[in-house]
Each structure stands twice: as structure tokens, then as C-alpha cells.
Amino acid sequence: MNSEEEVNDFVKNGHQQYLPHLSIDPVIFGYHDQQLKILLHKWIGLDGWGLPGGFIRRREPLSQAAHRILQERTGLEDLFLQQFHVFGDSPYRLQERSAREFTEKYGLVVEKDNWLFERTLSIGYFALVDYSKVSVRTDFFTTDYRWWDISDIPPLLFDQNEVVDKALATLRLQIYHQPIGLNLLPEKFTLSEIHSLYETILGKELDQRNFAKKLVSLGLIKKLAEQRAIGPHRSPYLYQFEKDAYENALKQGIVHTY
Amino acid sequence: MNSEEEVNDFVKNGHQQYLPHLSIDPVIFGYHDQQLKILLHKWIGLDGWGLPGGFIRRREPLSQAAHRILQERTGLEDLFLQQFHVFGDSPYRLQERSAREFTEKYGLVVEKDNWLFERTLSIGYFALVDYSKVSVRTDFFTTDYRWWDISDIPPLLFDQNEVVDKALATLRLQIYHQPIGLNLLPEKFTLSEIHSLYETILGKELDQRNFAKKLVSLGLIKKLAEQRAIGPHRSPYLYQFEKDAYENALKQGIVHTY
DNA sequence: TTTGTATTCCGTAAATTTTACGGAATATTT
DNA sequence: AAATATTCCGTAAAATTTACGGAATACAAA
Question: Ranges for the Nudix hydrolase domain (chains A, B) (predicted)?
Fold first, then answer.
């Protein structure tokens, strides 16, 4: 959606294609090189940073909409994506927005009862991706984007700081119950790599040896015979996820601590 | 909403008062006397059992709407009520319903594009109450109700069996991380009572002694000096929740097993 | 070839938590 | 006083979690 024609059509006729009152706002966590970031877009007019949201098509299943929006924004398919909460309490979520303001900011003429100004509840999803593999796309409303370190999130639009906080809390709770890493690490990875991943996401240190013991004893990873030469020091062995156990743990959940 | 006038107004003009495309469908778990049940209403016309749902007012915060709906249906305020999932994937949730059918079943004349026939996503909440303290109210659409044992849920409308299953799974997972019982047990209760409560909810046996030890060691309950005379046998001591620890555990979560 | 550097690899003992389990105590009824 | 029904208590074994340091090794530089 970038040409003026498309944008106009979206604003004027979007309600025919999309459900009003609802948006999907994904918190996209990007991990790479021991850093955990989230993807934010700069919304023009509103002049602030916000989540890369989208709308649900009228005959589109909810989870499909979430995947589509993520795909449109990042080019990624088939990743860890999970619904975590609906936000509909904050004053921002109760307010209807003004058409005049919109016209001033975007230079588009719209009617007062345009669907975009109605009260909108936000369905929060979060995803976990390798941000070095993402090619972010912007559009008419979002001209710029940036990956922000989670320790350094700027003030966001509406109640989206709350959304991000809750997403992070959910992710950190979840990692105790479900495995993570399948699409974030190379097919074959070292213990250090997966260890760093978990430490970074949880934001705290984990004993290297006990951590590895735990994952192995849960049957989630297995040691390969291969090693990887990466520098002037002993070469680490490579590990692989046990797909079956991994899938199973995703579904069933695991009860444990690290 | 019971007079014909009110119902007509709701059907015709409800969209002015309520958000379309969204409903709140609470799964109300009722516990009493070692039985765990859920509240279902018999929906006339649709001729089946379903959850006692409701709609969100246009300027009403989401969680307030959930509490209101519960209050309207059960008379209860201030109880354990929690959002757990949005349902928008099942074919039922994509379908729009037909006006003709509606007219046939309810004898109300409605237009084809009435708001009630549009695709509706369901925001799932679950609550936990003492069903002996509930006075259920019905309305024009729901003439009858019944508490159904969770092991014996009938086929429900739409995708609501899935909703109920997920609610139960969430409850059972949650009880490992957050305390339960504050509004389900008397102010002062015996170990047997709280033990039965947990066994019933989890649907499995828990060692009596270890269970009590755990709750005490977590600081969630404390033993009182009083006993309660209840039969031709030794009288049990009474216990009370430690409110502070309880509230704290609700917020922070506990990591443990039983 | 040797030496230095950076990183990986491994295992055990102590502490804590969880599990398993049975017999004595006691309030009431007969 | 005896019978009945239920509560109360504690310990030992098993399992899990935690804490922790020194030898091995791949490469680079001398």
C-alpha cells in the first residue's frame, strides 16, 4: 500500500475489506548476536513510534490475519507467533479519533465517521525472529522503522508501551514452559549460542553447564559428532534440536526451571 | 432485557450501543461440594446450549464489560475473572448468519444487514465462582440454564466446545502458578476443603500431607487455633488465607508443582 | 616448533525439593 | 465404653537443582 490511489482506497473503503474496531498489533522480537530488539515503525502524522499493526480481513481467520500482517511487514513466514492478550481498557482504546486532525496530518480528506476513527481494540501477538534475516517493509503511514533494544524502548503511541511490556513478560514466562530457538539459531548450533539466546531473552545469567545438562536431559537437543572451527581456541561441538521432542514440548509444555 | 420492546430495541439498535463483530463469552466455572461445573444457557431458536455471552458497550473498557456481563448473568461482583484467548479461526466465526432464519426462529423481523448477523470474534474469559451462591438470570434469548459437570459437557453452539476446553486447560495450568480459592471457600476453611478444591479442579489426586505442607511453606495459608466440629470424629483445625501473600502470588506468580 | 590466548568441555558434592507412606489421636454416636 | 469416621503428624528415600574449577584444544604469533 504505497501509491496515493491505494492509500485513498484504504482509508475510504477499508471498512468494506476489513473488520472495524479491531487491529492486530504484533510485538516482533528480533534476536541476533546476543541482542534482543523489537521492531518499531515511525508513524507519520502521529509523529511517533509504534507497533507494525494491521487489520483483519472480513472473511479471514484471525490467526491467518496475524501471519499475513507479519509476512507483509517482515517477509517472514512460518515462525513463532502467538496471541497473548486483547487490549481494550486504556483511555486510548476508548477514544475515537478526529477526522480534522487526520486531514491536517495526512492531507487526505475523510468523513467524520470514517472507520479508522472508531474505537479500536488491539489483539496483541508476539513473534520471535532473527532480525538479520528480516527485510522490513514500510508503507504510506510508516515511512521509517528501527530495531530497538528492549532495554531502550521509546515512548510509544497509544497504550503500546503496556503492550510491549506484557509481550516481554509473556515471552519470559513462556520460555520456562516451551522451547525456543528453532528459527532463531542455525540448523546446527553450539552450546554457547543457545545459551546466549536464553540468557539474552531472560535478561539474566544462567549457569552454562547446568543449562546444557537441562536441555539435554529434557531431550530437546542432541550432540553431534561435528565441531565448528571458529577461532584460535578449542572448537565447540555442534548440537541440533530433536524435532519430535521440540514439537511435543511446544504442544504439551514443560514444567521446569533453569 | 426481557420485554418484547427491549428485545426489539436490542436487535434493531444494539449496534448503536454495542461494538459489532465482538462478543465476550465467559466460561463460568462453578465449584461446590467437590464438584466442578460450568454454567450454560439454553438458547432458544438456536435450540442448543451455549455460553452466557454478551457485548461490549461502545465506550466501556473491555474488562469492565466482562465484569458487567458476569454480574448480569450471575449477580456476582468482584471475583476471579480472566481473559484467556480470542477465538476467530473456526468456520463458525467466519460465517455470517441469515436474517431469514432469525425471523423464523424468534418471530422478529430484521433486516439482512443487522449487526447481529455479522462475523463475530469471541473474547474468551473464564471465571471461578461458588455456584451455590449464584442466582442465575436468563433473558429473552436464553430461557433456561443449567450447571453442567465438566466431565459431561454437551455439544455447544458454534465453536464453544473449543472455548470451554481451552478455558479448562488454562485454569488447570494457571492453578500451578497462581493461588485459587479466595472466593470459593469460606473465610476459614479446613485442609480437607482446600485439598478437595484443588483435586477437583485439577481432576487428579494430590497427596493430602504434601499438599498442605506446600501451601504452608509458600506462606499462602496459616493455621488458626480454632477447630470446627463437624461430625462424629476428630475436629479439623481451621485455616485462613494469608491475604498479602495471596495477592502477591496472584500478581507475581509462583513456580512450583504439587 | 613452541608459547600464548581464548574458549570449550566435563563431573561431583552439597543443598533443596519432592515423593511416598502408616499409625496414633479425637469428636461424636451407639 | 466401644465403635466409627476423620484428622493429624513426621521421616526417610529419591530426584532435582545448584555451585563450582581445572584440564583440553585450536589457532595465531613469536
Answer: 19-172
